Amino acid sequence: MNKNEFSIVLIGDSGSGKTSIISKYFNRSFDFVEATNGINLSFKEINLNNNTKIKLNIWDTPGVGILRSMIRFPLKSNCDGIILTYLINKKSSFDNIFEIWINEIEKIIDLKSIPVYLVGNNCDLEDKREVEKKEVENKSKEYNFKFMETSAINNININELFQNISEDIYNKYYKKEENIENEETNQINENNNIIIIQNNKPKKNVFQKVSNFFKKITKHFKK
User: Fold this and answer.
1) What is the mean pLDDT of the chain?
2) Same structural domain for residues 104 and 212?
3) How many H-runs (helices) and E-runs (strands) does the chain carry?
4) Strand 53-60 with 40-47, pairing
5) In sequence order, what E strands does the chain have?
6) What CATH number does residue 49 fall under?
7) In terms of domains, do 78 and 29 share one?
8) In this structure, is the dihedral angle defined by the CA atoms of residues 144, 20, 124 and 128, taken in order, positive or negative?
9) Where are the extended beta strands (E) located within 100-209?
10) Per-residue burial over 8-47, b = 16 or more CB atoms within 10 Å of its CB, e = otherwise
């Protein structure tokens, strides 16, 4: 099945940069970005490195207390990739990814089945850093996530983030499809082989039976 439309869901604490990252990606003004009180969905067409054009459905989710359960809807709506956001200058936003958000996500979807990016926003505030890169790199390896740092204000790695995760989603999806097709082909071949073996299995037909009968008779009279 050919698919050229994919969904990416941004998840993280309120104020962790989800809305700012999306706003910058779409070249929207974000001088003052309000916290997301619901689910916002944006669309964009992009070209991949292989010149394939795909459509992205980008979900901005709320990160406040009682609204956290709202992430269930986009995750159940054919989620193809996840961006987990935190602020490099706010340690609690990073800790909550592993203490809160991952637990919520894994109730709905297997994180190993899709590309996941761990994204530290506000990388322009290096002098106020509370989350060290080494710690993030270790967590990324542990969970098999990709890791990037961004700055929505200075437009650092924003386009690269969405381009990279889109490439990973596309490649993973079509690799999976290829594996499924190979499995189906192998199954067909296996079934055909069984049929061939069965068809080639020696069978005693009527003529063989008659021939054997006369051989026995001939041996009897020769005695």
Assistant:
1) 83
2) no
3) 7, 6
4) antiparallel
5) 5-12, 40-47, 53-60, 79-87, 116-121, 146-149
6) 3.40.50.300
7) yes
8) negative
9) 116-121, 146-149
10) bbbbbbbbbbbbbbbbbbeeeebeebeebeeeeeeeeeee
Q: Are residues 46 and 97 in the same domain?
A: yes
Residue 12 in contact with residue 18, Cβ under 8 Å? Answer: yes
Q: For 101-124, how does the pLDDT look when each residue is reduced to its tens digit (9 = 90+)?
A: 999 999 999 999 999 999 999 999
Q: Collapse the DSSP code of 119 into the 3-class scheme (helix H, G, I; strand E, B; otherwise coil) and give the result.
A: strand
pLDDT for residue 140:
97
Between 217 and 28, the more confident residue is 28
Give the number of residues written for the chain.
223
Q: Encoding tokens for residue 146?
A: 């990709």
User: Could you tell me what percent of the chain has a pLDDT over 70?
Assistant: 74
Handedness of CA 7, 8, 12, 18 (dihedral sign): negative
The number of beta carbons lying within 10 Å of the beta carbon of residue 152 is 23
pTM score of the predicted model: 0.78
Structural domain tally of the chain? Answer: 2
Phi and psi, residue 120, nearest 5°: -95, 110
User: By 3-state DSSP, what share of the chain in percent is helix, strand and coil, each rounded to 5?
Assistant: 50, 20, 30
Cβ-based burial of 113 (10 A; exposed 0-12, middle 13-18, buried ≥19): exposed
Token pair belonging to 142 = 């542990």
User: Is-contact 96 65, C-beta < 8 A?
Assistant: no
Residues 148 and 55 in one domain: yes
**Gap between the Cα atoms of 125 and 60, Å rounded:** 23
